[in-house]
Amino acid sequence: MAAVARWWRAGLPGLLVLLLLRGARAEQTEEHLKREHSLTKPYQGVGSSSSSLWDLMGNAMVTTQYVRLTPDMQSKQGAVWNRVPCYLRDWEMQVHFKIHGQGKKNLNGDGFAIWYTKDRMQPGPVFGSKDHFLGLGVFVDTYPNEEKQQERVFPYISAMVNNGSLTYDHDRDGRPTELGGCTAMVRNLNHDTFLVIRYVKRRLTIMIDIDGKHEWRDCIDMPGVHLPRGYFFGTSSVTGDLSDNHDITSLKLYQLTVERSPEEEKRDKEVFLPVVDNMKLPGVEAPLEPMSGLALFLIVFFSLVALVFAIVIGVIVYNKWQEQSRKRFY
Ligand SMILES: [Ca+2]
After folding, report:
1. What does the mean pLDDT of the chain come to?
2. Which sign, positive or negative, has the C-alpha torsion 275, 277, 283, 284?
3. Which helix (DSSP H) or strand (DSSP E) does residue 134 occupy?
């Protein structure tokens, strides 16, 4: 998969090469497709069967061609969440999506989010899902909320890792907490649009294929992202005064098999809260190790010794002082 992306980006010409690579891509990745974490046509049982692997929420609805998170109407909110927690260490999520509506540029909103979080099925203000989440959120933000922003062209894709303590600043389009991002003109296109989130050896890479050329374009590349295992994949969307159809054609989750050196094994050890290296997330100070019995004994012992010592010194000083004052008096 990675090799294929590199070949594509190298811009090799020729239809034959392209076809071969496409074949290789399908063959190579199909083996690792994890059906329990993938949402594909015809969305068997989604929203109707209790045995489905996916739950619908809010205004989300299923058709034969897509899962519509929100229709192009004001004040809608919808989501679809995987029921099965993901315990893979290295994975890739391919999102096939379509955003379209009547609104002219920048008169549409709000976009959608792709989640890998502990908190599933909880409506809230972050693209229709819970704020102060635990995990990763990738946002395809189609409406610029921050007023003075000439430097950033929307739609804009950004990512955020949260340990539950951070607030997504909606009025500033999440700038204070973003790991990175890129502009992506994804609305009202006639060709298919894709986004891929790759998480390998603690490196988070987000790429987009939105120009109809079957090429992945880099968007975010961030090493040192530590995400716990056992979180849930999901996607959510919200509309406000402005709206769009936010449609998910498929979510395909691939298991990636990589070899790790002993050092990498050590570096990639399990975490229980999301952490990003060299980035201060408030409230993640490591909890103090519970004190051992010996340490506690030593602290109490030396405190007592110090106390006795202080009392003795105090008594001596007091006696001396009394003696002196007596001398002075007589
Ligand atoms: Ca926004």
Report:
1. 88
2. positive
3. strand 134-141
> What is d(CA 296, CA 188) in angstroms, rounded to the nearest whole number?
66
Compute the distance from residue 279 Cα to the ligand 1 centre, in Å: 23
Summarised one tens digit per residue, pLDDT across range 13-22 is 444 444 444 4
- What the block records as the tokens of 257 is 């098999």
How far, in Å, from the CA of 143 to the mean position of ligand 1?
4
Other Cβ atoms within 10 Å of 78 Cβ, number: 24
117 membership: H or E segment, kind and range: strand 111-117
Share of the chain above pLDDT 70, in %: 85
Spatial separation of the C-alpha atoms in residues 164 and 66, rounded to whole Å: 31
Cα(5)–Cα(16) distance, integer angstroms: 16
CA dihedral of residues 35, 48, 124, 168 (deg, nearest 10): 20
CA–centroid distance, 205 to ligand 1, in Å, is 22
pTM metric for this prediction: 0.77
Cross-strand pairs, 61: 68
Q: How far is the CA of 128 from the centre of ligand 1 (A)?
A: 12
pLDDT digits (tens, 9 = 90+) for 72-108: 999 999 999 999 999 999 999 999 999 999 999 889 9
CA-based nearest residue to 161, from 82, 201, 220, 90: 220
Query: 223 CB contacts (<8 Å, ≥6 apart)?
Result: 202, 203, 204, 277
Residue 144 Cα to ligand 1 midpoint, Å, equals 5
The neighbour count for residue 301, using CB atoms within 10 Å, is 10
* Euclidean distance between CA atoms 92 and 194, whole angstroms: 13
